[in-house]
Amino acid sequence: MLLNGVVLAVNYALIALGITLIFSIMNILNFAHGQMFMIGGFVVYYFYGLFGVNYFAGLVAVVVVLGLVGWCFEAFFFRRMRKMATREENAMLLAVGTALLLENLALTFFGEKQRGVPPVVSGVFRIGDAFLPAGRLLVMVLALVLIIGLLLFVQYTKLGRALRALAQDREVTYLMGVNVDRVAALGFALGAALAGLAGGLLITVFGINSGVGTVYSIKAFIMIMIGGAGIVPGAILGAVVLGFAEAIGYALLPGSITYLLIFVGLIVFLLFRPQGLMGKPWG
Question: How many structural domains is the chain composed of?
């Protein structure tokens, strides 16, 4: 249970960090985040599972494809909406519309069938009394490397500083001479790529289908509500909480009871801490 919790937590952290990045720089909850996860899984399925391309080359393709999707969404949809809309509800409705668009396109092109890929590596490692398949260990290590790489990128690079500045104050970032439109598009692309990479990793464990996007969007929202919206450490903490809750729940409880208890627990938690574990009371 603990090993499964770690594997889920580090992969869920990729999803949570992606949606947190988009929310912090644009103040938009990307309802299509789970659908981007789903597309990433299908990219790996076609590149690695169907065409036999190297798995890591498939992950590079995920970054390119989802980065382009994220950039297009920001440049052609959300940027125009942000400049013309007068109500915050417009952004939410646009985000829901993009989620429905991606999901229905996936159903049209990919169908409803569950897809999987061959194991990337073989073997099993024994850790105490637990057995960890090499494939899950690979997924965990790759996700952890990506998380560390993202945190270092945001903290120490010029573009990362621009992203942090944009998240803190858009107007002041304009005054500092930053090309805000370009930085916002790159941030949206990076968030989409992180979701796609999580899909490309987890397809080796759970498989993928066209309807899975909504499930992972809900999980992403749960994580940021637990940790606090727009807060990077909070996103990671929320991923850890959800990953271990899911792993322990599925091991000890019947099927759907696990998420019933997770949702009930989330409702009770939000009654007492609506800003999340690491959020401030004022937002």
Answer: 1
